[in-house]
Design goal:
Elements lengths: L3 E4 L29 E5 L3 E2 L15 E6 L2 E7 L2 E5 L3 E12 L7 E3 L6 E7 L4 E3 L3 E3 L2 E3 L1 E2 L6 E6 L8 E3 L8 E2 L14 E5 L5 E6 L12 E9 L3 E8 L3 E10 L2 E10 L1 H6 L5 E9 L7 E12 L1
Parallel strand pairs: 1-21, 2-10, 3-13
Antiparallel strand pairs: 2-6, 4-5, 4-7, 7-8, 7-9, 11-12, 14-24, 15-18, 16-17, 17-24, 18-23, 19-22, 19-24, 20-21, 20-23
């Protein structure tokens, strides 16, 4: 059987889930009440319920707040939200993320659970969404939803990765030395250094995965730090061809950052594909100085 290999560039903004391009600054006041009550959310954390779920590392940047199932708005954390409600009400907070790391492209994350608490709201008073105090902040916790499937977790704690370097790559991924300050957490992180002679790196998952279509959420999440651009995407496999689809380019990031890469549009658009691999690559241009990519806590997750 003959395969053809080609590349496509997928769009970043085609999304099946709700977006908040501009975060809400205040709720719409209606009715006779003129003095608002306030709901405060300091931060939201991720609780891991199984070792198979990997690290608890998360970057929940926003709170999508509902009162009695009515959306009040999306608010960057920490937030103090005025609402024209009083008395006992059901308050739901959905954790929000920056899609593809973009500050102006945000969504409630469909692969986490929500927080729902019964609150007594009092005009001109603050009610805090309850949680444990972590680093001085009241932090309610969310979990991966029961409907979430975690296909891949890679924490780079040993040399047996779930990734292989591709035939295009000039070098392999290695581990940070134990005890180095460049490690994100645990004993090691993944690292690769590009130089004058070794200018291209690419790895992909050692297995192919059958991923859901029809706009079902599919995400890659990971922690990264880099001095050179990183490209993230998928290879799609059908009976006749292999296609490489770059999805997102991450630019220089001098400190560790969590990113949630939305793979939903490209996966759903490949109607003839039977399976997929995730790839991560880096290309040092001749004009660029030598640079290093650090990676940790890579997860492929979907509903």
């Amino acid at each position: 059987m003959t395969f053809s290999t080609r590349k496509t560039i997928s769009g970043l903004l085609s999304l099946p889930i709700a977006l908040a391009l501009v975060l809400t600054s205040c709720s719409k006041f209606e009715g006779d009440q003129t003095v608002p009550a306030f709901i405060r959310v300091d931060s939201i954390g991720l609780k891991i319920t199984s070792i198979d779920q990997g690290s608890k590392s998360a970057y929940i940047s926003d709170a999508w707040i509902f009162v009695d199932d009515e959306l009040i708005g999306a608010f960057e954390l920490p937030c103090l939200v005025p609402v024209l409600y009083q008395g006992n009400h059901s308050v739901t907070v959905k954790p929000g993320i920056r899609l593809n790391g973009l500050i102006n492209l945000r969504s409630a994350f469909p692969l986490f659970t929500s927080i729902t608490q019964n609150m007594r709201l009092v005009p001109d008073s603050v009610t805090v969404v309850k949680g444990s105090v972590i680093n001085g902040k009241v932090t309610p916790m969310v979990q991966y939803a029961e409907t979430t499937t975690i296909e891949v977790t890679e924490a780079f704690e040993d040399a047996f990765y779930v990734f292989d370097t591709t035939t295009n790559s000039q070098l392999d991924m290695s581990l940070t030395p134990s005890g180095t300050p460049f490690t994100f957490e645990g004993d090691h992180s993944g690292m690769v250094t590009l130089s004058d002679t070794l200018t291209y790196f690419e790895m992909y998952t050692d297995e192919k995965y059958t991923l859901p279509r029809q706009s079902t959420p599919v995400f890659l999440e990971m922690d990264y730090m880099t001095s050179i651009p990183i490209t993230i995407g998928v290879y799609s496999y059908s009976s006749s061809e292999i296609i490489q689809h770059p999805v997102l380019v991450l630019t220089d990031m001098p400190k560790w950052q969590k990113v949630y890469v939305n793979l939903t549009p490209i996966v759903s658009s490949q109607t003839s594909a039977t399976s997929f691999r995730i790839f991560i690559g880096a290309n040092r241009l001749e004009s660029d100085p030598a640079g290093t990519v650090y990676l940790d806590n890579i997860k492929l997750i979907h509903q």
